[in-house]
Amino acid sequence: MFSHKTLSKSEVEPETYPLGEPGExxxxxxxxxxxxxxxxxxxHRIYISMLAExxxxxxxxxxxxxxxxxxxxxxxxxxxVRRGLEGLLTKLSIERLNNGGANGGxxxxxxxxxxxxxLARRQAMGVEMYPREVRLRExxxxxERAIRRVVANNMLSRREAQVALCCVEGLTNAEIGNRLGVGxxxxxxxxRHIFIKFGVKRRAELISRLLL
Length: 212
Known about the structure:
Elements: H1 30-38, H2 41-56, E1 63-64, H3 66-73, H4 78-90, E2 94-100, E3 106-112, H5 115-124, H6 132-135, H7 141-152, H8 158-168, H9 173-180, H10 184-198, H11 203-211
Helix pairs in contact: 1-5, 2-4, 7-8, 7-11, 8-10, 9-10
């Protein structure tokens, strides 16, 4: 059983990491963005570190152990890294490999997968492809169009993507704050950035841009 420790601010960044920053292999486009939206900040920090390392080595995939990942991510807690790995395993973003250790034991190693491969695996194994906060709207063609347009905007952060999709659902700022666990002023702050990134001036324009 993996331990669950409270994260300190130094261990994981806020839930506003970019969906498509250069270090995340932006050529992956919407697949990377959708995968990023499904990860927690801790999970995504570990995932992009693994993916960036394989890209740096010029390899299609890479195998990592917990100690290596602590060094790559600068996360000092073994339990924190293991918790992130458990989430990535559940979401089929990585795969566990059992290799023989130096003393004949079993050392846990993990293989990272590309965004496209992750989505294909989820679909093949019947695992939800959409993040939890938008899953209830899956099957609604208009909302799915909004999802595609949100994840295609690589300038958006994960939190901004969540706020934008909540707007499409017709939620007020207060309702968005309650759903995401943030204050109403924080929602307004994110909305200002969303408007700029989509080139609109008000909520109705944003919704039209995403749905029509």
